[in-house]
Amino acid sequence: MTLMSAFSSVGLLLGAMAVLSLLEVLLPLRKRTAWSGRHVAPNLSLTFLTFATNLFLNIPILLGLAFLQARGWGALNVVALHPALEVLFGILILDFAWYVTHVSMHHTPALWRFHAVHHSDPAVDVTTTIRQHPGEGLIRYVFLAVFGFAAGAAPAAFAIYRIWSALHGLFEHANIRLPQWLDTAITFVFSSPNMHKVHHSRDRAFTDTNYTNIFSVWDRMFGTFTPAKAGLTVDYGLDGCDGATQQSTLGLLRMPFQATESPARGARESEGAA
User: Do 198 and 206 form a contact (C-beta atoms < 8 A)?
Assistant: First the structure.
């Protein structure tokens, strides 16, 4: 992935965000609230910060995967596979790595403190997708590197997966209304908008489900699946994190390093101390 292709990918994501933002106006799942306007500036600030850090984090992983492929190291490089199958298996392994990362961030207090920045958004729409603390980005890439290097995933699989996962993330966070039958049908293979809205609930019984990034098979396989229809009525955000200062760009960047009154976070930290 050259620097030019990286910038092209950013352009693609911004274009997709613009299209989905229009669909949010035409086919909204929920009516706009005061938070719908307030969260745009901090969300976009973190989005562009994530774009910048990801440009650098992608490079060592791509170089490492190319190095392993050239030497035939890694599980997928020691078996003879059609190039298309090699890419497919690589994408599946990377998506499973994303699932494992996501579960780990919910159940490991130190990791949750970074991931809580994403979950604390009181309104979920397309701008929430890449509302991510730089620390979370680093955590995710470490997991991707460990799984990708062990598997010997093809560099092409990594490049395709990163673009696909970002585009899918925009789709599942978007505040768009799909017919319930269609949303449910999507969940038999992929994560859907309503399926992921369940994950953004303030209720931990829902928050700790539907971790899927692209393929819903992981949630179904490991018993963390909640039907998509539950996403129609959940209350978004984290208790104790709704203050204007907390929801500012600076407040979100500082959040992992400050104590909060969030019951969700407190429960996780209590578990870690047990």
Answer: yes
Token pair 């909640």 is found at: 226
The whole-angstrom separation of Cα 169 and Cα 206 is 18
How do residues 64-117 score in pLDDT, each as one tens digit?
999 999 999 999 999 889 999 999 999 999 999 999 999 999 999 999 999 999
Within 108-262, residue ranges assigned H as helices are 109-119, 134-151, 155-173, 180-186, 193-199, 204-207, 217-221, 249-254
Is residue 110 within 8 A of residue 138, CB to CB? The reply is no
pLDDT in tens, 181-211: 999 999 999 999 999 999 999 999 999 999 9
Dihedral sign of CA atoms 246, 251, 252, 254 in order: negative
pTM (2 d.p.): 0.91
